[in-house]
Structure formats: structure tokens, C-alpha cells
Design a protein that fits this description.
Layout: E1 11-24, E2 27-40, E3 44-48, H1 55-62, E4 70-75, H2 83-91, E5 93-96, H3 108-118, H4 125-134, H5 150-162, E6 168-172, H6 180-193, E7 198-203, E8 214-219, E9 222-228
Parallel strand pairs: 3-7, 3-8, 5-6, 6-7
Antiparallel strand pairs: 1-2, 1-4, 8-9
Helix pairs in contact: 3-5
Length: 230
């Protein structure tokens, strides 16, 4: 799945010797340094590393938010940095960010429905309710995000990106702000999606190794080792 592995036509995400550089007020910062990996259809990959190691940059590069200065990125066989491809990639991808995804003027349920409509998907309320029960947030669906706890908002954001069953899931620290009980709920729900979607996860939480087939460690923008998960 990583390094010099051959690229299959079924590979959903391919990074080949990718370098990413950010310009700051004090000069350039190299965020990724020669990163290479592939994720096959239906595969799951977990990136583990400290804050600032490049984990989020990988996810943003997959979505075309960040453009590589060197190397090649392909998602669904497309180059996400190309204007003609970027929306095709994003409509097939669910992205759980750390930046907050909810509109405070809408209820949780309205946020989920609005998100799905924006992606040109029709999702039944029954399906949303079923997922909400599994995440233990069915009681907050008619509340606004600013009326509930940070952990409840985090699970609601996960509900939102799971609701339309995207082909590719990008999950940035999915168990952040969650206590052990609710982290376990999230892990159980994600394990149910493993057979129907491709997942790339970033986390500090070692429990996520239980749902990841492959684990890549990253530090200073470089891959430093790999191991097998579940």
C-alpha cells in the first residue's frame, strides 16, 4: 500500500513522491517531503503522527485544497488540482475536518440534509435517524450546534459525512473531543462502513488501529514507517 508498491487500476488514491510547501511570513515551510502511498478500493489507511507532521496536508492535497509543488496525486484516476476534476473528486468524497462544519443557524438535522442536498444526494430521514442512534445523538437532531457539547457536534459532523455513503472517506482526528465511551461508538460505526467505502484516517488515537488495515507513521512531512492494523 505504500512506498514502491505497484499501482493497480483499482487504486482510489495514489501519491507518488509528493512534496508540498507552504509560504509563511517567515519563509517557506515544507509540509510534505517525498510522500508516496496507494490506497486500493475498499482499503483503509491510518496516518499517525504528532500535530504539524503533515497528516492534514495529505487530506487537503487529496481534495485539491493544497497543490503539490512536486510529484503526482491521483484520486479516482483524476488529478484533484485540475479545475475540471476537483468537483468530481469532492462529490465522491466525504471529508471530516477539524475546522467545524456546521451552520449555527440550522438544526443538526437541517445541517445534515443541507449537506446532502449540496452534494446532489437524497438521503431519507429514517437513515439519518438510524445513524444518529448508533452515535447516541438522536436527542440533539432538532437542536442547533451552539446548543450542544463539542463532543456531540463532533459526532453530528461525522453523521453528516457518513449519511450519503461516499466512495472515499477522509477523517481528520474523528475521535477528538470524545470520551472513551463515545469514541467506542464512533469506532463501531466506522467499522460498519469498512466494507462499503475506502477510508483514510489521521489520528493520535491508537484505538483507530483496530479499524485500519495499514498504518503509516509520519513525522516532519516524511513517512517514517508502516505497520499492519486490523
Amino acid at each position: 500500500m505504500c512506498g514502491g508498491d505497484s499501482v493497480s487500476v483499482d487504486s482510489i488514491v495514489v501519491f507518488e513522491d509528493v512534496f508540498v510547501k507552504y509560504e509563511t511570513s517567515t519563509g517557506g515551510v515544507m509540509a510534505l517531503r517525498g510522500v508516496s502511498f496507494t490506497v486500493p478500493k475498499g482499503g483503509s489507511l491510518l496516518f499517525m503522527g504528532p500535530s504539524g507532521s503533515g497528516k492534514t496536508t495529505i487530506l487537503e492535497t487529496i481534495l485539491g485544497i493544497v497543490r503539490p509543488m512536486h510529484g503526482e496525486v491521483r484520486v479516482f484516476g483524476l488529478k484533484p488540482e485540475d479545475e475540471k476534476s476537483i468537483m468530481r473528486v469532492r462529490r465522491r468524497t466525504g471529508y471530516l475536518t477539524q475546522d467545524g462544519m456546521m451552520i449555527n443557524e440550522l438544526t443538526i438535522m437541517e445541517n445534515v440534509l443541507f449537506y446532502c442536498q449540496g452534494r446532489e444526494r437524497t438521503v431519507s430521514k429514517d437513515k439519518i435517524l438510524e445513524l444518529a442512534r448508533k452515535l447516541n445523538i438522536e436527542s440533539i437532531l432538532n437542536k442547533r450546534p451552539d446548543q450542544v457539547s463539542g463532543g456531540e457536534v463532533r459526532r453530528a459532523e461525522l453523521l453528516m459525512v457518513l449519511a450519503d455513503e461516499p466512495e472515499l472517506l477522509l477523517l481528520d482526528e474523528p475521535t477528538s473531543m470524545l470520551d472513551p465511551e463515545n469514541s467506542d461508538r464512533v469506532l463501531k460505526v466506522l467499522s460498519e462502513f469498512k466494507d462499503s467505502t475506502t477510508m483514510i484516517i489521521t489520528s493520535h488515537d491508537p484505538r483507530l488501529t483496530s479499524i485500519s488495515e495499514n498504518i503509516l507513521n509520519i513525522y516532519g512531512g516524511q513517512l517514517t514507517g508502516s505497520s499492519k492494523g486490523a
